[in-house]
Amino acid sequence: MCMIKGILFDKDGTLIEFNSLWIESTYEFLESITRIHNQEEKLEELAYKVGLEGKTVREDSALAGKTSVDLAEIISDMLKVDCEEILKELDRFYYEKVKEKPENIKPVCDLQQLFAQLKSNGLKIGIVTADNYDVTKFILDMLKLTEQVDFIATADLYDKKPNIEALQVFCDEQNLQLDEVIHIGDTSIDMEFSKHCCYGVGVLTGIGTKPALLKYTPYVLNNVAELINQDGELSLPA
């Protein structure tokens, strides 16, 4: 087994609750954009296409693990409107909603304590998310985690997961080898990304189910809090 020196975390569904932040906002955006383009009759079909099913998100959907570009392409294709226009409005809408309702940014555990314990074990910490940088930085600042994070990779700066680019840059910047890093996430896309590093860890605080995650890794945790054992050390093979 490799010596673990770095951890890359997914963000939504892994470090913060997914549903409280994105489901309501996405519905609001779809309602707004279909109304603007006089196509309200397509709202429910469009919601389903991006991955919404009532108050849940399908784990194989665009909303579960892809980027705002992917969402914009689905919306523009169905409404027959310019994709760049949709993308610009979508990014602006999400950023404003996060700032408007910071109370919806709900950590899955005491992340400040968790990150402090990981750092005390000598681990480098990175974030790799399908979100854009401005939203991600705002969220990390709100959670008071920014100073504990060594690397941030977002979909507007790097190729989206499961492409290796973000992992490679993290390793290069932190002087790590690919097999010295683990990735922690809640979706199948996260687990596909994990194939580039030592191994992946699934968590059950997001979109992915235990059977789905176990197809990729034997390491599935209820919550990232379980990364640290009672002795304050990494609980996973290191």
Automatic annotation (TrEMBL):
InterPro entries named among the record's database cross-references: HAD-like_hydrolase_sf, HAD-like_sf, HAD-SF_hydro_IA, HAD_2, HAD_sf, PGP-like_dom2
GO terms, molecular function: phosphoglycolate phosphatase activity
Keywords of the record: Hydrolase, Magnesium
Origin species: Psychrobacillus soli
GO annotation, biological process: DNA repair
Pfam family, one: HAD_2
Name of this chain's protein: HAD family hydrolase
Species lineage: Bacteria, Bacillati, Bacillota, Bacilli, Bacillales
GO CC annotation terms, alphabetical: cytosol
Coiled-coil region(s): none
